[in-house]
Amino acid sequence: MKAVAPKKLNGEDWLEECFEYERTHEIAFASPRALLEARMIAEMDKARRPHRRAQLNGVAHRRKTAVA
Amino acid sequence: MKPIIFHVEAAGEFRPVELTFASESEVRRVRAWRKMTPATEAGEFAALAAKRWFYYTREGATVASLGELRAAVARNERAELAFLMVASAEWARRYKFLALAYCRRTWCHHLVLDFLAVRPGLSFANQPISGVGSGILASLMDLADSLGMETMWGEATASSASFYEKVLQIRPVKDLFIVHREAMHEMSQTYLANQKHRLAMAGKTPHIQQHESSRSKKAER
Question: What was the ipTM of the complex prediction?
Answer without folding.
Answer: 0.87
